[in-house]
Design a protein that fits this description.
2 copies of one chain form a homodimer. The first copy, chain A, has 15 helices and 7 strands. In chain A, helix 13 links the parallel strand 5 and strand 6. The N terminus of chain A is likely disordered. In chain A, helix 4 packs across helix 7 and helix 12 packs across helix 13. By secondary structure, chain A is of the alpha/beta class. The interface between A and B is large, with 51 and 51 residues.
C-alpha cells in the first residue's frame, strides 16, 4: 500500500514537472550564443527527434550518450595544447633538480625557450617530456600540481586562466544536451587525470565521465597508507583509432552524438555515425582569426583535413565559428 | 523572469517531493531481506550520516561513489565463476571447427568434461580458454553470444538462469544506496563486456558504470562499416592490486563505500578506507551451506582469508549470510 501511494505521488510530481519546468525550458532559448544558422537548427532538430516519445527516431534516456573531444572542441588549443604548456612549466620548475637537462634534449631546448627545436625529436621527445613531468608522484600529488597550475597560469595571448578559454556556445550545448536527458562524456587525447581536475567545475562533467589518455599507475601501501603511484609508462592513447576503443572500454555503448574538431576525432565520429537509428556528428571548424584562431588542413595542432572531407561527403554538421557563434569565450559577454 | 519562475516551480516540486516521495521512502524498510542484525544497522547508520546536511560526516551527492565486486558479492560464483561456465559452453560449441582440440590441452580435457585436469595448467590454461572463446569476433557479435547464452543456460545446481542467481539483499542495498544519491559501480575481475550485457537489467547499473577486466580491441572499417574487433590479448586485469588501479583509471575518484567477498577485493577496500572522512567497507562472508555455499579461507574460488583478518582488525562490516540475510536469492521469496 505504501509503495502504491508513493508511486502515485511520484506520478503527480512528474506530471507537474512536465507542466512547469520542462515547458518553460522549451520556451526559452537554450543556445543563446549560437546564431540562428544551420548548425543550431540541426542540433535542435536532432534533440527534438530523439527525445520525443513516439517519434521514429526516439532514443530511450539511458542510451542518450553524447561524446565531446576537449582540446579545440570545448576549450582552445592554440598556440599549443594547454596540457603541454603545463608540462613546460613543470620542466622549468623541476630543472634545478635535474642539472643534466642543460645538456640533454629535449629539455635543453625547452629551457632555452626553443620549443620548436625541442619538438624536432617528434613523438619520442614529446613522450619524454610527458613522462618527466607527469610520473614519479602519487595520483593525489599530481592532482594538486594541476590544481595549483590552473589557479595561477595564464594564457600567453589573452592573459586569462586556461579554464576561461572555454567555448561559451559549447557550454550551452552541454547543458542543453543534459537537460534533454543526455549523459555527456569527454573523449579526448589529453591526459585523463589532467582533465578530471577541472571537468566538473568548468563543464559540469564529473570525473567518471571523462575518458582520455592514461599512464600506468601502481598500488602501494606506504607507511600503512594506500597510494597510487604514477609510473613512467603510457598505458593508453585516446586519439584517432583509440577513441572508439576508449569509448568501448570505458563507456561500453555506442554514442548517439559526437562532437570534435580535428582528424583525431574522425574515428569517434565514424563509430558514432555507424550505429543504427538517429545519429548526430558535428565538427567545430576554427575559422575566426580575430576572436580565436583560424586553422584546419595545414595545422600541426588540431589538423582538420580528412575529417572535413568526410563531414562534407556525409552531411555531418560543421560549425563555422566565425559565422555560427555570436560569442566565443564567456569573458566576451 | 522566465528563469526565476522556473526556479520557483522547481523549488515547489522539490518541497513536495520532500514531503511525499522521500518521506514514504524513509518510512518503509528499504532492506527487507536483511535481518535486524549489526550489518544492516551499520549500513543504515553510515548512509544516514553521510547524507545528512550539516552532519560532520556529510558527503556531497557528487562524491557518493559506491563500488561493488560482482562474483560472490552481487551474484553467486559456485561451483565456478559463471563467465567460465560460459567459456566452457563456447568451447563445446566451437569444437567442431577445431578438430585439433581433441589432442590439445586444456581443450582436450575440457571436452571430456574433466575441468580439473584442464585447469591443471594454471593461469596460462585459463588465459588460453578465455582467448579461444572471447576473441576473434566483433564486439557486437560477442555481445550477442553472451545475450543468447544468458537467455538459455541454466545453473547446474539450481536449474535457474544465471541472472536469477543474484543476491536479493544486495539488490535491495544497490537500490537503497542509489535512492540516497550514491552512484553505484561494479568493479569486478570478470570481463567487462560480459557483465555489461546484463548489469543494467539485473542490477540497475548501466554499462558505463561497470569496470572489469578487458581484452584489447581494434577499430576497423569493414565493407564501409566501422567495427571493433576483439583481439587475442588481455589488456587489463581488474583484480587485487588492479582494482584500485581500475577505480582510478575508470572512475577517477576514490569511493566512499566498497563491497566485496574475497581477497581479490582487499586492495579495493583498503583504497576506499584510506580516504579522508566517513568510509564504509563490507565483506560478504559465504557461511550458508544449505541455502547457498559455505567457503572462505581454503576455497580456490572466492578465497577470503587475508581479507577476513583485515576486516576483523579494522572493524569493517562482515555479513554472515546465514545469520544476516532472511532471503538469499529472489526466487526463494
Amino acid at each position: 500500500m505504501k509503495i502504491r501511494k508513493r508511486v502515485s505521488h511520484i506520478a503527480i510530481l512528474l506530471f507537474l514537472a512536465a507542466l512547469t519546468g520542462f515547458h518553460s525550458a522549451a520556451a526559452q532559448d537554450a543556445l543563446p550564443s549560437w546564431n540562428d544558422t544551420a548548425p543550431k537548427k540541426a542540433i535542435e532538430s536532432f534533440v527534438t527527434r530523439v527525445t520525443k516519445q513516439g517519434s521514429p527516431d526516439f532514443v530511450p534516456a539511458d542510451e542518450r550518450i553524447a561524446v565531446f573531444d576537449n582540446d579545440g572542441t570545448l576549450w582552445a588549443e592554440q598556440p599549443m595544447y594547454f596540457q603541454f604548456l603545463f608540462a613546460l612549466d613543470r620542466v622549468k620548475a623541476l630543472a634545478p633538480q635535474h642539472p643534466e637537462w642543460k645538456e640533454k634534449e629535449p629539455f635543453a631546448s625547452l629551457l632555452k625557450g626553443d620549443i620548436k627545436a625541442a619538438l624536432a625529436g617528434g613523438e619520442p621527445a614529446m613522450v619524454q617530456i610527458v613522462i618527466a613531468t607527469h610520473a614519479g608522484m602519487t595520483t593525489d600529488e599530481f592532482d594538486q600540481l594541476v590544481r595549483d597550475w590552473l589557479s595561477t597560469a595564464k594564457h600567453p595571448k589573452t592573459g586569462r586562466p586556461y579554464t576561461e578559454m572555454v567555448y561559451q556556445p559549447m557550454l550551452e550545448l552541454l547543458a542543453y544536451m543534459r537537460a534533454n536527458g543526455f549523459k555527456t562524456f569527454i573523449v579526448s587525447g589529453g591526459g585523463v587525470d589532467f582533465m578530471r581536475v577541472f571537468s566538473e567545475r568548468v563543464y559540469g562533467i564529473p570525473p567518471e565521465q571523462v575518458i582520455g589518455s592514461t599512464g600506468k599507475v601502481r598500488f602501494e601501501i606506504r607507511d600503512g597508507k594506500p597510494v597510487l603511484v604514477r609510473l613512467p609508462e603510457i598505458q593508453f592513447v585516446d586519439d584517432k583509432d583509440g577513441k572508439p576503443v576508449g569509448i568501448h572500454q570505458f563507456i561500453g555503448r555506442r554514442p548517439v552524438a559526437a562532437f570534435g574538431n580535428s582528424d583525431g576525432d574522425l574515428q569517434m565520429l565514424q563509430w558514432t555515425a555507424g550505429g543504427s537509428g538517429a545519429r548526430f556528428c558535428l565538427y567545430v571548424h576554427h575559422t575566426d582569426a580575430v576572436r580565436e584562431w583560424a586553422y584546419d588542413r595545414q595545422s600541426s595542432i588540431g589538423r582538420l583535413d580528412k575529417g572535413l572531407d568526410e563531414a562534407n561527403a556525409r552531411g555531418w554538421t560543421v560549425v563555422n565559428m566565425k559565422k555560427d557563434w555570436k560569442v566565443i569565450f564567456p569573458f566576451e559577454k
